[in-house]
Write a structure and sequence with these properties.
The chain has 230 residues and is of the alpha+beta class. The chain is built from nine helices and eleven strands. A hairpin with a 2-residue loop joins strand 10 and strand 11. It starts with a helix and ends with a helix. Bound molecules: adenosine-3',5'-cyclic-monophosphate (CMP).
């Protein structure tokens, strides 16, 4: 593993050259195929994973195969930090949704680096705060909204994920929307319901679709009409 590749990972971007070099020396690389279960909920583990390329979903499920997607993570994101930090079993399962290249760091190496770099700790905590915000929104949506509101909430979140803080926009395009089953698992509904709702939202002029590209034509209108007032 080369230090420059580590530098492009936001979590490590503030590290000194020497710390990048020592992290690179102890990190290992793992490549996994689509559908590989990288982490299984409830298992013990003390490794942190950074996604170098590819895409994974963070999920929780029950025995009948029902599943909720907590998050979809892509290149530059990390996971596995919770067990690494608190020593408890994995809080969720993480599954590769495409061919994915991962960087693995063991607890002792990561903690040593974090103790030397307050920057790294700050970035980690800030990401955790952001994940908690998103999860709060998801809990609110699942507990309080109807299926339209929940699907609209997922679309608004996906749109927000793509924004790069250039103020409030009226319209937003999700360039590669998740597949219908993934949207269903994020919104706590079925694939068929998502399909029906997207068709209906398109017919009513809220969204426009072209393959996997989905444009929300008026973010404020979608939010006002569905997300907060089901
Ligand atoms: P860990 O509990 O070690 O293993 C599962 C990982 O999934 C967890 O660390 C986090 O990295 C990630 N994870 C768990 N819950 C969420 C969530 N709500 N949002 C994003 N990622 C999560």
């Amino acid at each position: 593993m080369k230090a420059p590749a580590l530098k492009s990972v936001p979590l490590f971007s503030g590290l000194h050259e020497s710390d990048l070099e020592s992290l690179a020396a102890v990190a290992s690389i793992r490549r996994v195929e689509q559908e590989t279960v990288i982490l299984q909920a409830e298992e013990e583990g003390d490794t942190l994973f950074v996604i170098l390329s590819g895409r994974v979903s963070v999920t929780m499920g029950n025995e009948d195969g029902r599943e909720v997607i907590l998050s979809i993570l892509t290149a530059g994101d990390f996971f596995g930090e919770m067990s690494l930090l608190d020593g408890k079993p994995r809080s969720a399962s993480v599954i590769a949704t495409e061919h994915t290249e991962l960087l693995l760091l063991r607890r002792a190496d990561f903690l040593y680096c974090m103790q030397r770099n307050s920057n790294l700790a700050t970035r980690l905590v800030s990401t955790l705060a952001n994940r908690l915000r998103r999860t709060n929104r998801q809990v609110e949506s699942l507990a309080l909204l109807n299926a339209y509101g929940r699907v609209a909430g997922v679309l608004l979140q996906l749109a927000e994920d793509q924004e790069e803080g250039e103020g409030k926009k009226e319209q937003s395009t999700i360039f590669e929307r998740p597949i219908l089953q993934e949207i269903a698992n994020m919104a706590g509904t079925t694939r068929e319901t998502v399909s029906r709702i997207l068709n209906n939202l398109e017919k009513r002029g809220y969204i426009k679709r072209d393959g996997r590209r989905l444009t929300i034509l008026d973010l404020g209108r979608l939010e006002d009409d569905f997300f907060f007032h089901p």
